[in-house]
Amino acid sequence: MDQRVLVASNRGPVSYQFGADGSLTGSRGGGGMIAGVADGLAALEPGASVTWICAALSDADRAVARSQEKGLRDEGGIPVRMLDIAPGTFDRAYNNVANSALWFLLHQLFDTPVQPRFGREFRRDWESYLAYNEAFADALAQETLTRSTPTGEADPRVLIQDYHLCLAPRLLRDRLGEAARDAGIGHFCHTPWAPPDYYRMLPDGAGRALLDGILGADQAGFHAERWATAFMDCCAAVLGADVNRTRLDGPGPGPVGRVTYRGHLTEVVVHPLGVDASALQERARAGDVRAHIGALRRAAGDRKLIVRVDRTELSKNIVRGLEAYRELLATRPQWRGRVVHLVFAYPSRSAVPEYRAYTDRVRQLAFEITEQYGTADWDPLVLEVKDDYPRSLAAYALADVLLVNPIKDGMNLVAQEGAVLSERGCALVLSREAGAAATLADDALLVNPYDVTETAEALHRALTMPDAERRRRSAALAATAAADPPARWLGGQLASLGLES
Ligand code: F6P
């Protein structure tokens, strides 16, 4: 059976930069969603016909998008179609609606005495978000009607990703009309979803449109049951949709409900996303990672390592993580001189003012801890802000403790990658608000991410965990992370959309 798979996401699998001489070079787009989708697509049948539609994110991307008649491919050979959306429209849709309003809403990050303020600007930005989703729906409709594969024809399966594209499933269904019957449309949200009381902060029209948009899909996917449940609660409370729920025995994958609205049924599914353990381990054997392991080991000496690896992202809760480390050093002086906290906090969304302020706060706190506790021969904390993937993998290999304490997180790959790459076993201090807590709870030390004292105590417990227990827990975490590799995550969604393999 031939396979035709269309993916749509804001960020694509490849992005471009201009060199000093004006030449263009491509590199792989970052983030958990890209890794999951790209690795999942790589596992499809060799003859599968795939097209990945994404937005041009920069001037360099736009230059490529305009000259892409020849056909663009990512590093793995996946055909990519980049949409050259007008810069102002893109900026308002991505920065103002997706990153400022929706991200804050879905992760429940608003500082409610002053935020959000949905005024005239938001109405204008919302029009751009609609136009941006329409551009994707137009491209998807065109590609959906192109049914040909290298060896014949196939009904397309469409996988629309994330909160940037909530309106696109409905817009696509409207464009396809009768032809929508032959195309399975899925939407997958990689973020948490907010409960109705919080969700209702959005202006009513926008709140209804987002839910109605996703319900244009045949399938709505989430990483964890609690996000799927919150989504269904919003469908019932905000739209008055008919919701039929089922319960999962474990963390998934599986269906958790059916929502009927405007005569169309959407199945709600949970698909946790883990890691491709053998590919990750192979990557970690490469020379660049080994060199970083050597350097980090020399720098740390025989001190214990507490590691965190994150984008400098408000939801990642880096500030409270640093405060917990400071409290550990303050309340348990036995660790002074005997532990180093490696904080890899890579740049993110610097166009959003809250992120710039947050980055300053992280730097300031790291500076204060070093000033307060550092000695001539001991740096209690190393903050690295330059993104370096091989160095991150090296840190996972050496970590005694991995700190992953998000305020909210759809899934969280760091928690899983860390366990898979750990060389001597690593204790995981994990926020109970991460989607990954549903799969990793038994073997991690779960914390309330707002409770700095509890987090400091968990760090102490992790540092003092007996070797055998740490190794046993770490092996169990690694096995869980490897149980839902991208191929299974993506293949499972396609199978429930009726794609035969
Ligand atoms: O959490 C969902 C997600 O799509 C991640 O995969 C990604 O890291 C992030 O959101 C989007 O980040 P960006 O705005 O940099 O593309």
Rg computed from alpha carbons, rounded to a whole number of angstroms: 23 Å
Spans where pLDDT lies below 50 across 5 or more residues: none
| Main sheet: strands, sense, barrel | 10 strands, mixed
* DSSP strand content: 15-25%
Give the total of beta strands. 20
Averaged pLDDT, please?
94
- Main structural class: alpha/beta
What fraction, in percent, of the residue positions are helical?
A: 40-55%
- In whole angstroms, the N-to-C terminal distance is 7 Å
What small molecules accompany the polymer chains? 6-O-phosphono-beta-D-fructofuranose
Kindly report the oligomeric state of this protein. single chain
Overall body shape: globular
The total of helices stands at: 18
Q: Tell me the strand order in the biggest sheet.
A: 5-6-4-1-9-10-11-14-13-12
Task: Set down the secondary structure blueprint.
Blueprint: E1 4-9, E2 14-18, E3 24-28, H1 32-42, E4 49-55, H2 59-66, E5 72-73, E6 79-83, H3 87-106, H4 120-145, E7 148-149, E8 152-153, E9 156-161, H5 168-176, E10 184-189, H6 196-199, H7 204-214, E11 219-222, H8 225-239, E12 242-245, E13 254-261, E14 264-270, H9 277-284, H10 287-300, E15 304-311, H11 318-331, E16 339-346, H12 353-373, E17 381-384, H13 389-398, E18 401-404, H14 414-421, E19 427-431, H15 437-440, E20 445-447, H16 452-463, H17 467-482, H18 486-496
Parallel strand pairs: 1-4, 1-9, 4-6, 9-10, 10-11, 11-14, 15-16, 15-18, 16-17, 18-19, 19-20
Antiparallel strand pairs: 2-3, 5-6, 7-8, 12-13, 13-14
